[in-house]
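hey m, so remember when u said the tokens were messed up on ur end? i reran from scratch. heres the input so u can diff it against urs
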Amino acid sequence: MGSWGETDAPLEMDSGEKRLNELGYKQELRRDMSFFKTLAITFSCMAVFTGTPLYGQSLLYAGPASLIWGWVVVTFFTWFVGAAMAEICSSFPTTGSLYFWAAHLAGPRWGPFASWCCAWLETIGCISGISAQAYSGAQALQMIILLSTGTNTGGGYFAPGASSWLAGGVVVITMLPLVAKTTQPASYVFGHFEMAPESTGISSKPYAVIMSVLLSNYCLYGYDSAAHLTEETKGADRTGPVAILLAIGIISVFGWAYNLALTFSIKDPKYLYDVNNETGGALVPAQIIYDAFYGRYHNSAGAVVFLCIIWGSFFFCGLSVTTTAARIVYALSRDNGIPFSPIWRRIHPKHKVPVNAVWLSAFISAVLGLPILKLNVIFTAIISVSTIGWVGGYAIPIFARLVMAEDNFNPGPFYLGRARRPVCLVAFLWICYTCSAFLLPTLYPITWNTFNYAPVALGIVLALVMLWWVLDARRWFKGPVRNIDVEIDRSV
């Protein structure tokens, strides 16, 4: 190799691009993302404020202690999932990520079917995730309009449902408890357990705790976005795994701090759910923030500013999730896995991004969100479908990695070694629990307005996907399709 001063020395190929070529893909997307940009998009997909719409319900199920300590428990198990995925990402730095991993790790016999299932779970999870973020942002905007026009008790307008933000998150987390004149003691935040069977219909303590912890389950995923960006990131076989783990670390700390800030700042727990309060009982965190600022400054200006920060977080989270969803659609269409694949895999000649895949993802997510205009409970179903699809997609490659022979695995720079089997086992079991929890009814008694439609919606879609596989796709879908002919060098 020549020195830095030698201008005639050939440029060294990026390690991520080299590994991509070995896996059978040519470099088509522009590889110019830095580690920081990849981390920022990954962090945005998780977002500090993602769980804001679920906070009130989680607090109602079992009180603050279950909510606060539930976050710690979920964080602990999330690290196992993140470590397992980081190892696989280091070995397979491709935009297809999860379904590509599943195809290679499951072997030639089961690879196509594993890849097919994983690809569609990914697609369902990410596209419905766009809808979830859009509705969450609409809720925050609804509160901004309401508080800016006089509050629910003062004649305000209650509208019908319709990485720079990390700094904003820090402001909210640190300022809210300082502004609030009335705060809750630590004994309430960390030790108070209280159920509300008259509101939720749930009288079982274990069931109530499971429901309360759904907030944490919902917030702590999306870190695979770093893997979907590996074909656009420099040195992706190294930076991809680090971005996954660092995103988990950041969101674990700041998400917990946000929940603590909200809970310490509660003025009157019962008043939060009153439909006659200033926010109409529609968004509990908005009422907490309003109470804090109105109690000290006798106006809602500060609350509106904080809610604008939260709304901005949802907006940029939605953009990041759309970016991830489009990369999944692009990768799957590149392998002829969806109808009209040639259209969706087109790359913009100048910007080198899959524009058609972006529009397809945005359009489908908008259609998915339309039922919310008539029935708010559909939002719960969309959140459940998004979580089950997205997190369920993690389970397939992790299980394949768990059972495969170690000699068949070509490790990247991030390698778990002997720890991979216990790590993958814990990760797989935790994913199974998470997906099961989101299929449960969230309110009793079960009526048309309280029913969790996620099992029905997900069941119909997956049944169609499986029927397509049995009748047709199994004959032609063989998993990831190589688009360059290279000899894979397996020497170590």
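this time it looks ok to me. The radius of gyration is 23 Å. if urs says something different then somethings off w ur setup not the seq
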